[in-house]
Structures are given as structure tokens and as C-alpha cells.
Amino acid sequence: MPIVLIAVRNLVGEKGRFAITAGGVAFSVLLILVLVGLYQGWTVQMTRFLGNLPADFWIGQKGTRDMSHSVSLLPMDLKDKLASTSGVKSVTAFVGRQVSFELRGKESHIFLVGVDEEGVIAPYKIVTGKPRPDKGEVIVDITFARQENLKMGDMLEIAGKQLTIVGMSEGGNLLVYSYAFAQEAEVRNILKFDTLTNYFLVQTDDPSYTKLTLEENFPDVAVLERAKFLKTNADLVKDTFLPIIGVLVIIALGIGIAVIGLSIFTATIEKSQEYGVLKAIGFSDRELFAIVVLQSLLAGIVGFAAGNVFAFVVVPLAEMNVSGFLYQAGFLEIGFVFVITLLISIVAAFIPIRRIISIDPVRVFKA
Amino acid sequence: MLLEVRKLTKFFDAHTPAEVRAVREVDLDVAEGEIVMIMGPSGSGKTTLLTMLGGLLTPSSGTISFEGKEIGGMKPSARVRFRRHALGFVFQSFNLLENLSAIENVIIAGFSKKDGYVRARGLLQRLGLEKRMFAKPKELSGGERQRVGIARALMNDPLLICADEPTANLDRATGHDVMQFLCSVGCEQQKSIIVVSHDERIKDIAHKVFYMEDGKLVRQEPGKHGEVCNMKSHQFFKR
Questions:
Q1: Chain A window 2-21: which residues touch B at a Cβ cutoff of 8 Å?
Q2: What is the ipTM of this complex?
Q3: Which residues contact A363 (CB under 8 A, 6 or more apart)?
Q4: Per the domain annotation, does B50 fall within a domain?
Q5: Residues 90-109 of A with CB under 8 A from B
Q6: Domain count, chain B
Q7: What are the protein's UniProt keywords (chain A) (predicted)?
Q8: Which residue range(s) make up the domain with B62?
Q9: Whether the predicted pLDDT of A357 surpasses 80
Q10: Average pLDDT of chain A?
Q11: With an 8 Å Cβ cutoff, is B108 touching chain A?
Q12: Can you give the pTM of this predicted structure?
């Protein structure tokens, strides 16, 4: 295929330009990949702890949708009523709220969660230390510990209570705050929730049947299905960060288009005599445009591969050194970025199209 | 008759004070296998005439009939097909693609011919370039580049070859060789060739020689092809 031959030879014949183009695309791809990976990482992280808790339904105060936009308060005596409902296997009270406290002279925030005696409510994954806190003890998220330079045995003073760090968990860093875990009774004491709780976690034999029963029997509470509740919580990332990420991705797209477009445009100008020759010997404008598109796509694909290699190096370094760098990119995200790269390449190829059309083959007869 | 040209005229900047009449009412016939030379000084309109015959420039008036079909009225896409299938071009400054090797420069003119590589290799071998097939244009001498240009012009097996000052950038001996190649192509493969040149030394290979001045064909002479062409000496395109 002459088109493929010419496109490949033009690219590899200008190695310096090709390297700059592919490198520029690679950085653009790296940026998009990191943004998409962070978005996905934050979304997954948002529900990692909540999704690990055994609950078919979250029972909250009427009007509650998620744990960020409103505070749910329910009376503790609702627990027995829920437990006695047909189809309900178990009910666990969930108590937890964001608290602020002073740490080394500055204000810190954690979402303090009460760990029940049965151990139903527990950290997502213990990294070090005890899996369950005793009285006067707390388990903090390892990202929070790194941010605040905390170590095992350090003391946190929350609402006048001294809590010693006895363990560190992961999967509970939500960027604006992170989960910390203390005994349920201690948390109730701190939050002054003697007769109140925030949610009840309900497990059932048949969720679809029991949902109707719960809604009929408890019309004054919100019966939140597990999947919907998790999604609503994860939507916080979408609502908060997606517009920002969207703007940054658009900027990265612009950079990618500019890098490939300028490179292909200057190459086209330099090669306009050769394009004229090709026109003279019978290549159509469409075929010449195909050569340009192919060059652009090849540069984009090589840039995409290089961008992935960059990400393979950069992401682990960032994860080690930047707290809250929650990156997660699977085949879907990488595939998405690949499609974006192809689009960048195709759009960039349109930049020199007018130039190609305007090349007059008669010019090649001029010595 | 392969090519019939009647009252072919080309104006540039028509109806303006800067109007240039590059070609004026040219009549020209080219038969199959005929080598036609168009001689004339620089600026006489030779190349403009050639580009119109090659379907690259639209005439202001007049007709160009190729195998009975009018070229001037063709749509742009039809002209592209015409150049692609019926014509071969040989340029003064060779115009090889610098990133492609000699054989690749030839292959591309075959477009998607299945036997493109084999045919291109065969052409280059016959033109004495079997050891230079993978050299880049900048590694080739002027004569070698022009031979690659001739191979490229032959790749699509055209009916007509349009050569624009094919010896202008070559020394005398190399220019003579190149004309010998073109002569052998015309004679042995029955290709029609139009050569535009101001080099009087090469006109002998033509069947007909036209002289052009101020856009007009002012004189025609019979060429000396029959005298100088010894078919036995054409070793390059033996079938």
C-alpha cells in the first residue's frame, strides 16, 4: 500500500520531529490517563469502606440520600422494630460523623465511625496494628497518618477524649476527610448519641421482597438499597470533581491536538513539493489526506504507548509521595484514553488539510 | 491517433492588465509509439503546454483529445484517474520522495498493483539500477535519479509519457544516456513520449520536432529517429 509506505517513511525519516511529536502526545496521554485514573480511583475509594459493610439496605432518616450531603439521625429503639420485621436477618446500628479536632495547633478532620461489639462494622483493611480498637483507642487511615505524620501510639484528643492510635487501615481516605474507627460506645459518647444513631444496616433473606415490607412498615424512614446508596455516595466525586477533571482533560486534548497538528502541519509544508509530485502522478486529495491521517494516527499510537510507559513509572512514584493520589485505571479507562488519542490524532490531521488541497501539482514542473 | 490537440490556448490573469498568453492556439497530434520533441527557449510556453496535455492545467480554450476522449472537460476526479492510469511523468528536477528508497519511489506509482515490488524491481534492473534499488535519492547520482524517475513513469504502464526538460540537470553524457532510455522505452514498448526541452542536442531521438515561441508552435521538423535509433542497441527493455 503506497499510502502506508509513504506515511511510515515520512514519520521515521524525520526521527527528531517524530520523537518530539510522540513525546508531546505521550505527556498529553499521561495527563489524561492520570486524571481519568484519579477520577476512577476516587470514585472507587468513596465507597470502598461502605461497600465492604454487610448490608442489603441502609436505613436512614427520611430525606437522607448519602453520607455527605445530610446528617441522618434515627432513634436507637428502631433497631428492635426493624429486627422483628419479616424477612430481616440482622440489624446493625451505624454511628459515625465527621468531627474536627486540634492536632499540633491546627484543625484536623476525620469521619469517626463506631465499631460494634460483633465486629460487623470494621475498617476496610488493616495495614498495621490491631484490627479492633478497645476503649481509649483509635484506628486511623494510613493516608491520614502520613499526612499528619502520625505513628502508632500517638494520641488524638477528640471532644476532650484521649484516643491512642493502635492501628492503621487503608481504603478510607476520602480526600476531604478519612475514616477513623473507635469503639461504638466511645463514639456515642463523643458524639452525644446515647439514644440516637445515624443508620441501621439491614441484612435480609430476600431484598426485593423485604424492601416493600420495610417501606410499608416504616414510612417515616428512608429505605436505601445498597447499590443505590453506594452510587449516591460515589456521585459526590462525580458532582465535585468531574467538571474540574473535564476541564483538565479538554486542556490535555488541546495540547495533544496542538502537538500533533503543528508537527503534521510543518511536515506538510516541508513536503508540499512531494505532495505536489504525488498529485501529479495520480494521487487524489483523499489519498494524500489519508497519508496525513495515517501519520497522525501513527504518531498518536506511539505517543499513547509512550504515555502508558510514563504512567507506569510516574504513578507508583506519585502514590508513594502524594497522599490522596488514588489512581485506578483498568482496561476500560486505558481503552477510553486510547479512543481519545485516536480522536486527537484524527482532529489534528485536519489542520493541514486545506494546505494539501491547495497544493498545485503544476508547481513540480518548476525547476 | 493517441493525442489530438486543437487550438489549445492558455491565458493567465485573463482580462487584466497583467494578462499572459502562455499558449496560443496550438495544434498537435501524437500517434502511438511516437516520440515528439517540443523545443523552445525558456518562457516560450512549453511547460504550460505539457501540463495541460498532462491534465494538470485547465485550458482557457481549445481541445485535448486523448484516445478520443476530451481531457479539458473532465471532472477533477476523472483527471486524477487519467493521470494515474494513462500518463507517466518525468521531471526536470527528478522529484523523487527523499524518504523513500529508489524501489519504493517506483512502487508508489503502481498504486496498489499486486505485483508492484516485482514490477518495480524489473524496471530498475532494466535501467541498470539493480545494485542501487535500496539507496535513498540523496545517495544517487543525477543520472541514477532520473533513471528512477523514468522507472516511476513506467510503473503504471502508461500510454503517454510527458517528460519536462529531462536532461536539464544532467551533464551531456548522462543526458544522452537518459534520452537513450526514453528512446528505448518508446520504441520497444510502443509508448508515446512528449519531451519538452530547450536542449538541441537531444532532439535527434524524436520522430517529430516542434519549435515553440511566445506560446505558439512556429515550426515543425521531422526528427532523425529513424537514423539514430538502432533498435538492436536497446538492451534495456527486451521482452
A1: 2, 5-6, 9-10, 12-14
A2: 0.91
A3: A273, A276
A4: yes
A5: none
A6: 1
A7: Cell membrane, Membrane, Transmembrane, Transmembrane helix, Transport
A8: 3-96+160-236
A9: yes
A10: 91
A11: yes
A12: 0.80
